[in-house]
Amino acid sequence: MLQLRDAAEGGEGDGAGDGGSPAAAVLVPGEAGPLLPPRQTLRPVSVRTATRGGRLREYFVFRPGTIEQAVSEIRAVVLPAEDGEVQSVWLLAEIDHWNNEKERLVLITDWSLLICKYNFISLQCQHVTRIALSAVDTISVGQFEFPSKSLNKREGVGIRIQWDKQSRASFINRWNPWSTSIPYVTFTEHPMADADEKVASLCLLENFKTQLIQAVKKAHKESPLPGRANGVLVLERPLLIETYLGLMSFINNEAKLGYSMTRGKIGF
Description:
The protein is an alpha+beta fold. The chain has helices at residues 52-56, 66-74, 80-83, 171-174, 197-200, 205-222, 247-254; strands spanning 2-6, 25-29, 86-95, 101-109, 112-119, 124-132, 136-145, 157-163, 184-189, 233-236, 239-240, 262-263, 266-267. A hairpin with a 5-residue loop joins strand 3 (86-95) and strand 4 (101-109). The longest helix has 18 residues, at 205-222. The protein is globular, with a radius of gyration of 34 Å.
């Protein structure tokens, strides 16, 4: 590297003085320094965390104030004359008869079980299914079970609630993925149930089971259905899901399409 240096600094030997040429700047060798490119482009670093705390932020339901607003709005759909008072609210995952996971808010009232499809992005209640607790006849708890040749299976524990003395849907309804005439509903814990202490109490499947059984027994006693034997049967047994290829549920569950989540720059 070359530096500019005044000639006078060189002393008498540099020819400066009376009668000599005027002082001039000369080039002298200097110390070498780092060579920087004339232009640099800096890009923001995107860090994706694999921790459950990091994944928690992808779910809209766990954002501050969201669950409180959702519960407040859903309470408005409760009919006091038909449902009574709300006893508890739960955040669970529904597993349909084709093994699709769906995020659900579930309310246990005095006389009803309300299953709410809630959009946590637009903060709107889109659909509510009402099941009379006095019509519930069987509650089963156990591991999920699939046919031996099924290609898409799941692990874990669930709870199945059956009503109207029907243990199995008709052949047409079983093979219709959009059927709403299935005489039971199956729940399991939300995939992020233990990631947020503030919401964890709403996601515990064991506590939900306990309160549901108590509510059903009370409803059978106080408002029995005429012409039917009252009482609820509580069983511990595998929960059969009759899917074989399961391509649709595989795509749905892997992409978490049943949950209100951020997906890149958009959320749905």
